[in-house]
Amino acid sequence: EITIGMNAGTSPTVKTKYVEVSGLKAKTFSDFTVDYDTNHLRLIDTKVWSWYPQAFNGVTVDVSDADLADVQWNSNNSTVIVRDSKAYIAVAKENVTYRFIDSLIEGDVSARDNSTIYLENTNVRGKINVYGNGRVFIDGEPYTGS
Asked: What is each CA distance from 61 to 45, 47, 55, 76, 122, in whole angstroms?
């Protein structure tokens, strides 16, 4: 089993602003192709445990129907939208925005460093932590720690 990470917004020559990806599941793929910014991956008879798509340098990444290892290694004014998916943790830092919609976060959620996490119809099984200038909103309401 493997975990696959992919970056968007890191190419010095391609200036992508929006990346959409779906179907990044924890399963065995007999033949699966995924395009993610400048990444082109084909899996043949490959068992995947989880995925971690990443966003950098102002890119918006829109992920749906996915099993994510974590959502945390994103930076520099990027946005990550996660729909109908499962993630193990969510850690926002360095001016990023996360929107989880109709999803499950198995572990903790943490917002710090001027980052914001929106949880819309999303179940969090761990703790919600807010540090410094981080913010978390649950179904449109600011999280106050209670």
From this structure: 27, 24, 6, 13, 18
pLDDT at 146 over 70: no
Cα angle 102, 134, 101 (rounded to 5 degrees) comes to: 5
Residue whose structure tokens are 């360095």: 94
Three-class DSSP labels, 27-67:
EEEEEEEEEECCEEEEEEEEEEEEEEEEECCCCEEEEECCE
Residues 6 or more apart from 144 whose CB is under 8 A from it? none
Give the gyration radius of the chain's Cα atoms.
15
pTM assigned to the model: 0.95
Provide the pLDDT for residue 137: 99
- Structure tokens that stand for 7 in this block: 């970056």
Q: Please tell me the predicted confidence (pLDDT) of residue 74.
A: 94
In which order are the strands placed within the sheet that holds 90-92? 90-92, 109-111, 128-130
Q: Which residues contact 88 (CB under 8 A, 6 or more apart)?
A: 50, 68, 69, 70, 105, 106, 107
- Percent of residues, the chain, with pLDDT higher than 70: 99
At residue 143, the pLDDT reads 97
